[in-house]
Write a structure and sequence with these properties.
Length: 174
């Protein structure tokens, strides 16, 4: 590697020496060579710049393609997400309507339940009243039956006394 450096330095020294020496033909030959090298250098520099610019544009196109593809994916995802959000909002609205109806039904059922509970209490009170009335009526019936049995016994006794008296009265008359 160092030999190559020495070779390049030696070549540059020779060119500088030939440019300093006033040998016309050799000097002009070196000047034309340097002019051709400058033209070639400019051509190569232009080609390298064009290649670099082409590589830069290629990289730019690749990145733009990547980002555009990502943008398309995001837009489709956003479209589906937007549809999903709309569907969920409709479902939420529907559920709120159903919740309102359910709340109304619950209130109606609670009113019905409270009415039925009140009716049940009234019916229980009426039932206990009727049970008491039935018990008093049964007690009254039992008392009446006992009184009827006592009266029947009294009637039988009186009937027997009557027959005895009639037989005695017939016995006195005869």
């Amino acid at each position: 590697m160092i030999q190559l450096l020495f070779l390049v330095l030696f070549g540059e020294g020779m060119v500088a020496f030939l440019l300093m020496v006033k040998i016309g033909l050799l000097r002009e030959l070196v000047m034309q060579g340097l002019d051709q090298v400058k033209v070639l250098w400019r051509t190569h520099l232009l080609e390298a710049s064009l290649v670099g610019f082409s590589l830069f544009l290629g990289f730019l196109i690749d990145r733009m393609h990547h980002y555009l593809r990502k943008l398309v994916e995001l837009r489709t995802t956003m479209g589906t997400s937007r549809k999903e959000v709309e569907r969920l909002e409709k479902e939420k609205l529907h559920l709120r309507e159903n919740e309102g109806k359910a709340n109304e039904n619950i209130k109606k059922l609670q009113k019905n339940f409270s009415n039925l509970a009140d009716n049940l209490k009234k019916l229980k009170l009426e039932s206990t009243e009727r049970d008491k009335q039935v018990e008093t009526a049964e007690a009254h019936v039992a008392a009446l039956q006992k009184q009827a049995a006592d009266l029947l016994l009294e009637y039988d006794r009186l009937l027997e006394d009557n027959q005895n008296l009639q037989t005695q009265a017939l016995g006195y008359r005869s």
